[in-house]
Design goal:
The chain is built from four helices and 58 strands. With 757 residues, the chain is mostly beta strands. It folds into three domains: 353 residues, 7 Propeller (Methylamine Dehydrogenase, Chain H), CATH 2.130.10.10; 96 residues, no CATH class; 228 residues, Neuraminidase (6 Propeller), CATH 2.120.10.
Length: 757
């Protein structure tokens, strides 16, 4: 083995030295870009318009204290995101926030740093939490069972409302009535109470449908004015537009159309970018500060103005409208600050639907936030918008190939973090949804690939492999399928019937070319290089979902399928391939369900090894049936191929088979050495510390997602300071003995200490 080969193994296996003193100086911080994961239910404080909060679909909730320019993830022990329930800021005290965590109500009294349970409500929350600005003791919430509940003592006790039917969409407190009149909007109508919530009556006179999509209200005590707005499904009735935005100026007794001049009422404006044949208005926003100002958010019926999805603004209660949001750089009125996608591609890849969530500041109608897989914020009523996720790195110009910095709002899934074996400042992240990014400054800023440099299968980069002797030469495993091997794929919630392949880069990952022959158009989930193979004729192995393991002996130019003894005809879902220090090859065949809700299959699932370069395979599962029905990831000791760790999930809700399993005899015998929840992702050996093992948990870990054992798994210590709980894999920094990088399912990458404090 050459010296460079030894160095290659050193880096790729994550070898590092541990320094307790160094670890004490390291704190956890997010690394990389955002995008891919969904953001939901934002809120803005009416007391401090710079204070914002939102949820994401990967368990994290975030808060900003500077108007959305920077964000802090709320620690999972304090609050977990609830995408179906909007949090509420206290109308007079900026320190107080109410939010849902796992469907249960929690309160913060320190601007979102800590949260604690409050109240006796046991039904799971849904819709939003609403507080009466005139009397903050009064609160309304919706629940997932279709009931609304009211509290008159600031959330301590709750009573079910007798009246509103359906899933709650929003609430409003009439500030001109002295707290007497309340409104509740559900998917079955709009309801009004004239007696502080004791009784309710439906108010839908004038609406073409009781199927409410959006609701908002504004009232001004000084003027005595109250205006309610709602949206209902749009329809084409004989070429005429019906539905959309409606308003009421008599507390819901009657409703009139607010589809005034300037808003999209077309019925035939359809092109390839259309969300549907007619614009739908799913969300509407207004404020007590100025009920005349209202915003309506629509789906697109075409790409170019005025038929793209946008934010319409009216300052006369819907009599006239103007578009305020032009996200794509090809728009003449482009008014959104560029992000890494629009700069690198020259267009927006977002199109069609309304935001997953939107919010307005009740005291300032010029402040809004929109959230999809990215966030967009305006402080000037829609004249200009900035990106809340990433921004151009200081000293850089927004252009293809420039560097971007992270705001802390890191909603994306990462599979691996790499440090280049030749240049320590070159770092790489393999992503779901956004493919791949690289850094030239040790992870401080990031360069995203673009349409001129990306792989043909650009959704996901699962893994890369470095040539140990040729700087800049890298092979990558790519796919248009994401989330392998996580539950969205296992349970058939996401389709895996999309292509993928192997690519090569000769310029340190700056560009990628598909040069592999023989691999079918299937997702490639893993790639590994044999460092002992000759330069110029490298041996590589690739895991291909639904097909098995492919081998190349000519630098990845041609590939041959090698499945003798591997998997089962019913299940060839290879999710990971690893090469041990002695040349033993390992492959994991992941779990499979025939359909969502069905039990896991046993065919093919488990760990396999090959001692002859993938020519033949043998299964090394534990003898007890069911233990490896749902494996996630595995690792092999850096110097002993008989020592293996496998992370597994419970096969069903009551079997408790999941956990971290270990073998020291090549798979002849196994023992469980760790279990902290139903979803163990993997276990990883510290390459330089005997007895040090890390365990990671993902997809809803009940507590900490990262654990360390210093005694081969006999006892475990949690990384309690890591704010995100859905952890996947680890990389140790060879240039800093106290630092490691943690990849996550939905929270990007986190840089932090190698040992808990």
């Amino acid at each position: 083995m050459t010296d460079r080969s030894r160095w290659f193994l050193f880096v790729c296996l994550g070898w590092s030295l541990l320094s307790t003193a160094s670890a004490e100086r390291v704190s956890w911080e997010p690394v990389g870009l955002s995008g891919g994961g969904g953001m939901f239910s934002p809120a803005i404080s009416p007391v401090d318009p710079n204070l914002m909060m939102l949820n994401c679909d990967m368990s994290a909730a975030y808060i900003s204290e500077d108007g959305g320019h920077h964000w802090r993830m709320i620690h999972h022990a304090q609050l977990r995101s609830d995408t179906r329930c909007r949090p509420a800021f206290h109308p007079h005290d900026a320190d107080v926030i109410y939010a849902s965590s796992g469907g249960r109500l929690r309160i913060s009294r320190d601007r979102g740093r800590t949260f604690s349970p409050i109240g006796d409500l046991t039904d799971s929350l849904y819709g939003e939490i609403a507080i009466d600005p005139s009397e903050p003791l009064v609160m309304l919430v919706g629940t997932r069972n279709g009931r609304c509940h009211i509290s008159h003592d600031a959330a301590l006790t709750w009573t079910a409302c007798a009246g509103p039917e359906g899933q709650a969409l929003g609430f409003y407190f009439d500030r001109t009535s002295g707290g007497r009149i309340l409104f509740a909007a559900t998917d079955k109508g709009i309801w009004r109470s004239d007696d502080r919530g004791q009784t309710w009556a439906r108010k839908t006179n004038g609406l073409p449908s009781p199927n409410i999509q959006g609701f908002a209200g504004g009232s001004n005590e000084a003027s005595g004015r109250i205006i309610l707005y709602c949206t209902v499904p749009s329809k084409d009735e004989g070429g005429a537009f019906t539905g959309g935005v409606f308003r009421s100026t008599d507390r819901g007794e009657t409703w009139q159309s607010a589809m005034g001049e300037g808003i999209n009422t077309g019925t035939k404006q359809v092109d390839q970018w259309a969300y549907g044949p007619i614009a739908q208005y799913w969300q509407v926003l207004t404020t007590d500060a100025n009920p005349q100002t209202v915003y309506a958010l629509n789906t697109s019926t075409g790409f170019h103005p005025p038929h793209h999805e946008t934010v319409y603004r009216s300052d006369d209660a819907g009599r006239t409208w103007r578009a305020t949001y032009f996200q794509d750089p090809r728009f003449e009125r482009y008014n959104v600050a560029p992000n890494y996608v629009t700069v690198s591609v020259g267009q927006s890849l977002k199109g069609g639907g309304t935001p997953f969530g939107a919010a307005i500041c009740n005291s300032d109608p010029n402040r809004l936030i929109l959230v999809w897989s990215q966030s967009y914020i305006t402080h000037d009523g829609g004249d200009s918008w900035f990106n809340g996720d990433t921004y151009v790195a200081p000293g850089h110009e927004a252009k293809p190939g420039c560097a971007w910095a992270c705001t802390g709002l890191v909603v994306t899934t990462t599979w691996h973090y790499y440090i280049d074996p030749f240049e320590a400042n070159r770092h790489y992240i393999a992503y779901t949804d956004i493919g791949m990014a690289r850094s030239l400054d040790a992870g401080q800023t990031w360069i995203w690939w673009d349409r001129n440099t990306w792989a043909p299968w650009r959704n996901t980069c699962y893994e890369i492999a470095f040539d140990p002797d040729v700087p800049g030469r890298i092979w990558g495993a790519f796919s248009d399928v994401h989330d392998i091997p996580n539950d969205n794929i296992i349970s058939e919630r996401h389709s895996h019937k999309r292509p993928g392949g192997v690519c090569i880069s000769r310029d340190f990952g700056a560009s990628w070319q598909a040069e592999a022959e023989g691999i079918g158009p299937k997702p490639v989930t893993s790639i590994v290089l044999d460092p002992k193979s000759p330069r110029g004729r490298r041996t590589l192995y690739a895991g291909v979902f639904d097909e098995g393991v492919y081998k190349s002996i000519d630098d990845g130019k041609t590939w041959t399928l090698k499945t003798n003894g591997l998997g089962d005809p019913k299940n060839m879902r290879v999710s990971r391939v690893l090469l041990g220090a002695d040349g033993t090859l390992f492959a994991m065949v992941c779990a499979k369900r025939l359909a969502q809700g069905q039990p896991l299959m046993s065919e093919g699932v488990g760990l396999y090894r090959s001692s002859d370069g993938a020519e033949t395979w043998e299964k090394v599962n534990p003898p007890k049936a069911g233990l490896f029905l749902y494996p996630k990831d595995f690792s092999v000791h850096p110097t002993d191929s008989n020592a293996i760790l496998v992370g597994t999930c419970d096969a069903n809700w009551d079997d408790r088979s999941g956990g971290l399993y270990r073998t020291d005899d090549g798979g002849r015998s196994w023992r469980r050495i760790g279990r902290q929840g139903r979803q163990t992702f993997g276990g990883y050996f510290h390459p330089q510390r005997d007895g040090w093992i890390y365990m990671t948990l993902t997809e809803g870990a009940p507590g900490a997602g990262l654990w360390l054992s210093r005694d081969d798994g006999q006892t475990w210590q949690a990384f309690d300071e890591l704010p995100f709980s859905n952890v996947q894999r680890l990389t140790f920094d060879p240039s800093d003995d106290g630092v490691m990088y943690v990849t996550t399912f939905g929270g990007s990458v986190w840089r932090g200490p190698v040992a808990p404090r």
